[in-house]
Amino acid sequence: MEYSKLLVEKENGIAIVKINNPQSLNALNSTILGELDTLFTELENDSSISVIILTGEGKAFVAGADITEMSSMDAAEGKAFGEKGAKVFRKIELLSKPVIAAVNGYALGGGCELAMCCDIRIASAKAKFGQPEVGLGITPGFSGTQRLPRLVGMGKAKELIFTAEAINADEACRIGLVNSVAEPEELMNTAVAMAEKIAGKAPAAVKYSKESINRGMQCSMDEAINIEANLFGLCFATEDQKEGMKAFMEKRKAKFNNK
Ligand code: CO8
User: Fold this and answer.
1) For residues 250 and 130, what is the distance between their CA atoms, to the nearest angstrom?
2) 66 lines ligand 1 (CB under 6 A)
3) Which one of 24, 73, 136 would you pick to mutate in the ligand 1 pocket, going by the greatest count of ligand atoms within 8 A of its CB?
4) Which of the residues 19, 42, 80, 196 has an alpha carbon 20 to 30 A from that of 52?
5) What is the pTM of this model?
6) 45-62 pLDDT, tens per residue?
């Protein structure tokens, strides 16, 4: 499928998705949200792809939801727009494959929320993060009020959301909003190196690990332990488990499915 605002490169099991609307700092409008929705369904079903990297073209990752598009919305339209974004972001979060955000620049509002629905965030030293919405008269509407406190704790999330202040990459790393910071020219190499490391592991084991963490973090410890036990058991029905353990005993590198 052709995308007007997304660039997609696929190589060695890794898809690099670049949001490509730099003249408005990759602001998320209905078109881009629709394209992300379609593309992530395509990537879910593409068995040649095991890891996805999401980044932005130009000086922004995403500078938020499109303020021009939102400016004339009424309450019902605002709710529908928020739900549209939240649905796409949840799809990314629940994808059976890891998604790494390579945050190249501004990640504000909907951009910070998009980074947060990814599994892992690597930031360029130039990146800026923030939830400026209350300065525009709205709340974070693409699940930022939910994911930010889960990532950085309630107190820090409330400070960032209530003050609408942006923070730099080092501070984002210090509070646990991003995993690591890379020099701008090293950002994509760092993200690809991590993606390659993941792509070299057993795909089903990575998929079940993601599912176990995502589902387990939303329920009681006892339920979570059951979820983990079931997914752990499913691994033993895969060829990769046989191959992974056999390779260890034969002192050689494992050759997993799709490799
Ligand atoms: N929406 C629309 N256009 C934007 C946006 C945006 N979020 N951000 C930047 N642009 C446009 C600018 O209007 C400008 O367009 P033009 O050249 O036609 O004037 C172009 O991008 C370049 O931007 P600037 O000239 O402003 O670039 P600077 O380098 O001077 O500044 C900033 C960069 C600081 C990032 C600045 O552009 C800025 O503050 N942008 C807005 C950031 C923001 O407030 N984001 C949050 C938006 S609200 C949101 O994301 C809510 C999510 C939940 C939605 C729920 C729906 C109900």
Assistant:
1) 50
2) yes
3) 24
4) 80
5) 0.97
6) 999 999 999 999 999 999
